[in-house]
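Sample 3 of the quickstart, ligand EPU:
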Amino acid sequence: MDNYSLLRHNTFGMDVSAKHFYEYSSVEELQGLIKSIPTDEQILHIGGGSNLLFTGNYDGTVLHSAIKGISITDETDDSILVRVGSGVVWDDFVAYCCEYNWGGVENLSLIPGEVGASAVQNIGAYGSEAKDTIVLVEAVELRSGQQRVLGNAECNYAYRQSIFKQELKGKYAITYVTYKLSKKPELKLNYGNIRSVLQGKENISISDVRQAIIDIRNAKLPDPSVQGNAGSFFMNPVVSREKFLSIQKDYPQMPFYEVEDGVKIPAGWMIEQCGWKGRALGRAGVHDKQALVLVNLGGATSDEIMALSDAVCKSVKDKFEIDIHPEVNFI
Ligand code: EPU
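Result:
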């Protein structure tokens, strides 16, 4: 399709268009499409558009996977391997797993987007990350159409990072992801207020955890269908122990997480300390319940969102001498 509106394909609600747009439902269809795209044409592969900020019309071809299907590829008494089409809505897959009592992704309930993006972004929330369950990622090279299968280790997963955001950025379409889920799940209840939301409940099931996560998210995060947003706009920075201790002296109540290479400080907390929570610049705002999320207050342009992003980063730098970086991709 030519001059195709991308409004329905980005949760920030940017009213932009793509020169060409194609959706495919199989690997073969994708390979056929790739052959027809001129070699000098730029290609952008999108998922649910929940981590993108379009800064203008896209002068190239936008591809989107509509590969569906969830199938079991292997099973033992303890675990199950499930191969899922990249175009499956992520939360439909999570709901499916919870229905069958397969554990591993329940803490990732209600994350917007699609299965393909889970493998690119290494989506994470409430103590779980996609990388904890991903076994295989099937992909197609966007210029040659060649298929490739990557094991978990080859994907170089880290916090909100993967090979698909680094060396292979923009080079592959994810077609299928295989996850390993547990038939004897261990529930992860220690993050944030999961336990308190579940208080009083006995024999907690995977579906109870899913419901608790849904309730927590709904209370804090804006619904993109009501108010344009792309979830967390910034990543949480990791700082050295020395730096952390020096800030902690002034802010003993600062939340933090010890990680391998230092200490992670929630950017949302720093943004709130800078006084940005609930404030706006033009039609772009900082969400009033979770300062890590920037929202389109209605008709915001990408320039307004970027101006707010820059102002927030500058405030955090001035107050804490820490650089924070957008997690959202600017296109
Ligand atoms: N906090 C504040 N003020 C705020 C926001 C947070 O003080 O405005 C504090 C909270 O009180 C808490 C800490 O910061 O002590 C962490 O907050 P929260 O648990 O809400 O998580 P986060 O670090 O802000 C990350 C993910 C979210 C995910 C949550 C829950 C990133 C970039 N974001 O946010 O992911 O839902 O943890 O696990 O790591 C997303 O990627 O779009 C997303 C929403």
